[in-house]
Amino acid sequence: MSTFSIFLVLITIVCFLLIVVIMVQNPKGGGLSSTIGGSQMLGGVQKTTDFLDKSTWTLATILIALILLSSLSFTGTLSDTDSKIIDNMGTAAPNTTTPIAVPAQNTPAATNPVK
């Protein structure tokens, strides 16, 4: 398994976790803290909100870092160096070391006047 594939799997996992954390939150402050009910669980409502907020920012930072690292580890197996089209164009290109024939200009031939 290539390094890029590993990064791709990690990015997918982080994206899924980020979606779950964002969906658990409620924009009006309810979210997970209102469904749990009671201040005994997870340290209370305020700490749950803080945990979800920190989780969102942490996962977003990890996602950006993974994307940047994966772009550095990309070997380019689909890059232009392996392209068959470019290889064919390279062989069909005219040889630049041979002179190119320039077409003659259509100039009238010099005529000798009759004397």
UniProtKB/TrEMBL annotation:
Source domain of life: Bacteria
Keyword Transmembrane among record annotations: yes
Topological type in the membrane: Multi-pass membrane protein
Keyword terms: Cell membrane, Membrane, Protein transport, Translocation, Transmembrane, Transmembrane helix, Transport
One Pfam family it belongs to: SecG
GO CC annotation: plasma membrane
Protein localization: Cell membrane
Record GO terms (molecular function): protein-transporting ATPase activity
Any GO BP annotation: intracellular protein transmembrane transport
TM regions (residue ranges): 6-24, 56-74
InterPro entries xref list: SecG (IPR004692)
Family: Belongs to the SecG family.
Its job: Involved in protein export. Participates in an early event of protein translocation.
The protein, known as: Protein-export membrane protein SecG
Lineage: Bacteria, Pseudomonadati, Bacteroidota, Flavobacteriia, Flavobacteriales
